[in-house]
Amino acid sequence: MQIITTKKELQAMVEACKATGKTIGLVPTMGALHEGHASLVKRAVNENNVCFVSVFVNPTQFNNKEDLAKYPRNIQRDAELLETIGADFVFAPTPEEMYSEEEMNTTFDFDFAGLDKVMEGKMRPGHFNGVVQVVSRLFYLVQPDKAYFGEKDFQQLAIIHHMVEHSSMAGTFGNLQIIDCPIVREASGLALSSRNERLSEAEKKTALAISKTLFASLEWAKEEGATVADVQQRVIDSINAIEGLEVEYYEIVDQTSLLPTDTFDHAIGCVTVYCGPVRLIDNIKY
Ligand code: PAF
Fold first, then answer.
1. Closest C-alpha to 217, from 236, 190, 241, 235
2. pLDDT grade for 282, boundaries at 50, 70 and 90
3. 194-281: which CATH architecture?
4. Ligand 1 close to Cβ of residue 181 (< 6 A)
5. Atom of ligand 1 nearest to the CA of 138
6. Closest by CA position to 121, among listed 251, 278, 265, 284
7. What pLDDT digit, counting tens, does each position of 150-184 carry?
8. 28 CA to middle of ligand 1, Å?
9. Per CATH, the architecture of 2-181 is what?
10. How far does residue 159's CA lie from ligand 1's centre (Å)?
11. Is the pTM of the predicted complex or chain greater than 0.90?
12. Domain boundaries in the chain?
């Protein structure tokens, strides 16, 4: 496995792969890798001739400086994990290598047909512009055949699909296929997240109530006369009743439009919860 830190080196490697007709799988990450990322990388390794993994804590997608500063970073441990699961190249640039000063400070305003205006987009203004800025840059640099993303960030995935299939950028990434990968959970149900590293053991136990409540809500949705509004409120009340947890939002929306829905058909519930100071997200499909 080779670790690359410059765009020039990266492009040379990509060109060499393309010249020999190799298919490329890309797994974009912000590092602090866990079994969830590992499942994406394993799939990319299996489905492509070459697997590139980017490890880059993208400053332009953080609207909270403290969150950016506290985001866990450990490239050594990440590289060890990636080596054992068969990644071929790790691209780990500095922010200065990735962006010019102007790019770092420019606010892009992409059009995502409203997908970026709800839930995470409402709570974290500018977040998805930063995500698209870095993901589109990675797509241009790596020219992957397939790119792998986890469904835990369901809204991010919807926006990336929109970017590749419908936005003004559609068609500029060749035949790129976006591969949706299911949420990976601990045996306890807790969705794996790099942010879990910031939870104390006690907070980790408390956080279990999030996935437990989401799974329970699948049953609540089947109860006679259950409405989306009732189930939504019951989830919020149940999580808020646990000391140490505070729901920022729980919305049951249509899986395609991400707009509120009054039916459980094709619906997904997306939650953001503060567990102490740590902001956790999770979701469940009805
Ligand atoms: O999901 C993430 O880890 C990040 O948002 C991504 C897609 C790597 C872009 O920085």
1. 235
2. very high
3. 2-Layer Sandwich (3.30)
4. no
5. 9
6. 251
7. 999 999 999 999 999 988 888 899 999 999 999 99
8. 6
9. 3-Layer(aba) Sandwich (3.40)
10. 12
11. yes
12. 2-181, 194-281
Give pLDDT tens digits for 238-252: 999 999 999 999 999
Buried b (16+ CB within 10 A) or exposed e, 224-242: eeeebeebbebbbebbeeb
Mutation test residue for ligand 1: of 53, 99, 153, 196, the one with most atoms within 8 Å of CB = 153
**In this structure, are residues 238 and 231 in contact, taking their beta carbons and an 8 Å threshold?**
no
3-state helix, strand, coil in the chain (%, to 5): 45, 20, 35
Contact 77, 36 (CB under 8 A): no
> Measured between alpha carbons, how far is 137 from 97 in angstroms, rounded to an integer?
12
**Residue 244 and residue 236: Cα distance in Å, rounded?**
14
Does the beta carbon of 58 sit less than 6 angstroms from any atom of ligand 1?
Answer: yes
If one residue of 131, 159, 192 were mutated to test the ligand 1 pocket, choosing by the most ligand atoms within 8 A of its CB, it would be 131
d(CA 193, CA 279): 10
